[in-house]
Amino acid sequence: MKSISPGRVNLIGDHTDYTGGLVFPMAIDRWTVCEGDITDDAITMTSDDLDGTVQIPLGSPFSSQIQPSWGRYISAVASLVSPARGVSANLSTTIPVGAGLSSSAALELAVAYALNDTMQPTELALLMQQAEQLATGVPTGIMDQLCIATAREGMGTLIDCESFAVTHIPIPTDVEFVVQFIAHRTLEGSEYADRVRECADAEAVIGPLRHATLNDVSRIENETIARRAHHVVSENLRVLEFTQVLSTGDYSTAGKLMRDSHESLSANFAVSTPQMDVVVRTLCETPGVYGSRMTGGGFGGCVVTMCTPGTELDGWRVRPVGAAERIS
After folding, report:
1. Is 191 buried (19+), middle (13-18) or exposed (0-12) by CB count in 10 A?
2. Would you please indicate which residues are annotated as catalytic (active-site) residues?
3. Confidence of residue 186 (pLDDT cuts 50, 70, 90)
4. β-strands 42-47, 86-93: how paired?
5. Cβ pair 25, 9 in contact under 8 A
6. Which CATH number fits domain 2-170: 3.40.50.1240, 3.30.390.10, 3.30.230.10, 3.40.50.620?
7. pTM above 0.85, yes or no
């Protein structure tokens, strides 16, 4: 038995998914692999990178107290996918943990396909969003799991997080995307949940941010809440424009949209860090670079840069790959 699941990098559209907004990630050529044997009565998992052995009897409910602690993810997945079989498997990954490249979602999808490969991608993604929330206690959105479950080789994935509609858009071959790790981060204990609450506060005033305008945002009296809403509404507009200009080869405009996205995430949504701001500013001044921005939930993690092929930059050049799957 072997299942694989890619990481993902979000090219534009951060902190929009949990308000039903638009995002444009792509699955990348870094992988989590779950490989082992089918068994009758239990789920047993080890990891190349994490200590301990996770052992879960079939049919067990989710346990937040399971040891080792990374077993919470396995327990959450197993409690939701109703496996008819057990597995004895090992996990390995080339996705850096805490980099904002969806290492946890990749783990969830790899384990889910090992346990139950009969579900449709969108159904599985929604269950794995629940698994993430169970394991972390963080009210995360659907982007990571839906991108990884539905990705196509050579394509970015435009997701409407309200309807879960997915549109695959070719990633041009005459640009490159480079991911640079800045600082380890975790959403547990971060201000991520605060941002979710602040967006809910904005929606209590002006209605769903997915359908709001910047004129609507001007009606919000609380300055902090207004800034959060301004980011979400303007970011949705940037996602649409980015996919359009990327498809027409207008990379200068696409790069500007990436820069504008980062500025909004930093100034309006307050999820960047001073170190990330400096790195993005420096990258955007580098010859051959169209644009750069933080990516993922923020509070550390990675920046993603769009550049001409061969531009000398630190980091990993990533390419768009297909979805998670069970391959044997």
Report:
1. middle
2. 144
3. low
4. parallel
5. yes
6. 3.30.230.10
7. yes
